[in-house]
């Protein structure tokens, strides 16, 4: 009986796997590449323009700490970066409107909406 259930489980693809982000070392792949590039560039620029070792290492160490933080964040959920992006966008929007409560509604006089209404008018007449 258990062999039959195991065989049935092996036959069907998991659609949950299609939604997963590619991770390398527990960090989303594109984020890892971007931070690694930032570490290399900031170290090179620091060595080229700065004389002091502590000044050279400030940015790369900060980026590596951010990388470890992202690894901890994405440990259980590969799509945690998407959630983080929405949180940051919401925070920026709340800063922009200078309010802790933020609601989004369409503007009735937006230029895109006016163009759409004109297009619909000529399309149906």
TrEMBL record:
- Transmembrane as UniProt keyword: yes
Q: Which domain of life is it from?
A: Bacteria
State which residue ranges cross the membrane. 23-49, 55-74
Q: Which UniProt keywords apply?
A: Membrane, Transmembrane, Transmembrane helix
Q: What is this protein called?
A: Conjugal transfer protein TraD
Source organism per entry reads: Shewanella sairae
